[in-house]
Amino acid sequence: MQRLRTPSGCMLIAADVGGGSAAAHLREELSAHRLSIEAGFRARIERGQREGDVDAGTDAAALAKFLATVVQGLSIQARDGASAAQLHEVLRTALRVWPGR
Fold first, then answer.
1. At what angle do helices 60-79 and 84-95 cross, to 10 degrees?
2. Which residues contact 38 (CB under 8 A, 6 or more apart)?
3. What does the pLDDT read at residue 25?
4. Residue 75 carries which DSSP code?
5. pTM of this prediction?
6. Among 8, 17, 37, 98, which residue carries the largest CB count within 10 Å?
């Protein structure tokens, strides 16, 4: 089996479902999976707020949306051939916006 030279990225992020109404169900399913990633981030942030790990004034919804966007962007960047060092730099930059306690 031939190995890929670059990661293809996450199918849930990179999937492009064309077509008409026949593909609508699949588009909705993929969208739901992507939204569940954001919901998971939000639930964890809110738990962190309750437990004192995350500042209580943090906008959990906005931070969850930001994190989901970073994850999706990392997937696309990886698919397009970004190096591990470049992806780590994106993560370091994203962590700089993490709210303090």
1. 170
2. 64, 65, 67, 68
3. 79
4. H
5. 0.73
6. 37
For the chain, the maximum distance between any two Cα atoms, rounded to a whole number of angstroms, is 51
Q: Give the number of other Cβ atoms within 10 Å of residue 64's Cβ.
A: 20
Structure tokens at 9: 């990225």
Sequence-distant (6+) residues with CB within 8 A of 4 are none
d(CA 5, CA 82): 11
Residue 97 token pair:
């916006």
Residue by residue, pLDDT tens for the chain (101 residues) are: 444 454 444 555 555 555 566 677 787 888 888 899 999 999 999 999 999 999 999 999 999 999 999 999 998 999 899 999 999 999 999 999 888 65
